[in-house]
Design brief:
- It contains 9 helices and 20 strands.
- The protein is an alpha+beta fold.
- A hairpin with a 2-residue loop joins strand 10 and strand 11.
- The protein is globular and about 70 Å long.
Length: about 475
């Protein structure tokens, strides 16, 4: 084993090798464990380990500060000097960085910076796997087949800078997706969960939920495109609002390019977006959704800057009581726009004050409504209104006077999440959820179900 092998030693050695004006080093130690199953039986399982090192060099010049970023995996001590030199060469060969700022300093060091990285392994499934086996048995006896996967990742991030920062964050991320199918494959239902440790997921409850949805699907009803009262479950609300968050950069709004731009100039900050008392917020310390309490930026973009690495993050309300409160900024874009510094945070919560579960919202429905399972293939149509299009998937059900009476065909929808918030007539109880579309990139979310009086199902989808 290489003499310099511990993550913090890798970071320290890279900083020692620097010959430029500034250096940021991010060491990510990854471990993962997974289970996959099909037809009520486990098919594969595995455990992986890995390391990625990102070096960001900065060079001051007469016209400004330039940056160079190089990332490589499986880095050992012997790889360090070539990696640092490559980042420095990239910085010297680049023009001044538009987002240049002094590197962050003065943040207290993490007390566990020199500790070994946290790791996950098959033991994370110690209680979950037997419970999953019991769910297989119940599904088999009930005439349905379960498919899906469980994945748990743990990333220990070590951040060091030439300005003295020594920060550490351990991020567990668990996802569970479960599909139930009828033996003839004509009926399918999906459920997903986000978890930190697989101690708060119940395969039996998920299987029971899916079994009910398969029973609903025994009756098939064809409906045309149109506007329908629609119950959006928390996973669908999360997918829509995550995209809204990604589209809420202050600079783009000030420059008139987004739904948050004010006609004639400026932004819509302070404007009421929703009649319901909805608060959309991010908090690195939100219970069960904990995320990095400081900026970790491997590259610069519209909502992140490598110069902000290590900047402390605080709870942020993006929408408060229905009013637009904040747009995302880096230090650079905050200075450009005159708005507060508000970096993106890796979780999202919508609170609406509601107490009803989705099931209770279904029971309270009068007349006709659609109940969705999830959304997928979401794409942007018009950034000026944040009009999105996408498809329903794995079950759209017809509710009549509080009862689910059957499954209907899938639809393509055309809607703006900002517009949906303005039209929502009810928000249910906020609960942790797994986004279906964006779950590979954003898993930490808690959302209520929303009742939309006139959700736009723009066309019938026959292909899913």
């Amino acid at each position: 084993m290489s003499r310099v092998s511990k993550p913090y030693e890798i970071v320290e050695r890279a900083l020692e090798l620097s010959t430029t004006d500034g250096l940021v080093v991010i060491a990510d130690e990854h471990s993962s464990a997974n289970l996959r199953w099909a037809g009520n039986a486990l098919t594969t399982n595995g455990v992986t380990r890995g390391r990625t090192l990102t070096v960001i060099a900065t060079v001051d010049g007469a016209e400004g500060t330039a940056s160079g970023v190089v990332s490589r995996s499986a880095v050992t001590a012997d790889d360090l000097e070539p990696l640092v030199r490559a980042a420095e060469a990239a910085a010297r060969g680049a023009g001044p960085a538009e987002d240049a700022q002094p590197l962050v300093s003065g943040v207290p060091s993490s007390p566990d910076f020199t500790d070994a990285p946290a790791e996950t392994g098959s033991e994370v499934f110690a209680d979950f796997a037997p419970a999953l086996g019991d769910a297989f048995a119940r599904a088999r006896s009930g005439g349905r087949e379960l498919y899906g996967f469980a994945n748990h990742e743990l990333t220990s991030t070590y951040l060091g800078t030439s300005t003295g920062l020594r920060l550490r964050h351990d991020q567990p991320t668990g996802t569970l997706e479960l599909n139930a199918k009828s033996p003839d494959r004509t009926r399918s239902a999906w459920a997903g969960r986000s978890t930190r440790d697989f101690k708060d997921v119940d395969p039996a409850a998920m299987d029971a939920e899916l079994a009910q949805r398969l029973r609903w699907a025994e009756r098939r009803i064809d409906l045309p495109a149109g506007r329908y009262e629609t119950l959006l479950p928390p996973t669908a609300v999360a997918d829509l609002l995550i995209y809204q968050l990604w589209s809420s950069t202050a600079r783009d709004a000030v420059e008139g390019r987004t739904v948050f731009s004010q006609p004639g100039g400026g932004t819509r900050l302070g404007e009421t977006l929703a009649p319901l008392p909805l608060t959309l917020r991010s908090d690195p310390h939100a219970p069960g959704l904990e995320s990095a309490p400081f900026v970790i930026a491997h590259s610069s973009g519209d909502s992140a800057s490598v110069f902000d690495n290590g900047l402390p993050l605080a709870p942020t309300d993006w929408i408060r009581d229905g009013k637009l409160e904040r747009l995302t900024t880096t230090r650079h874009s905050a200075a450009l726009t005159g708005l507060p510094v508000a970096p993106a945070i890796d979780n999202l919560v919508l609170d609406g004050g509601g107490e009803r579960s989705l099931e209770e919202m279904v029971a309270a429905t009068t007349g006709r409504a659609l109940l969705l399972t999830c959304l997928w293939y979401i794409r942007e149509v018009d950034p000026a209104t944040l009009l999105l299009t996408g498809l329903t998937r794995d079950g759209v059900y017809l509710v009549e006077d509080g009862q689910v009476v059957g499954e209907v065909n899938n639809f393509r929808f055309n809607e703006s999440p900002v517009d949906l918030l303005s039209r929502a007539s009810e928000a249910g109880r906020t609960e942790k959820t797994l986004p279906r579309e964006w779950g590979d990139w954003f898993t930490r979310a808690a959302m209520p179900a929303l009742r939309i009086p006139d959700f736009n199902m723009s066309s019938v989808s026959r292909g899913v």
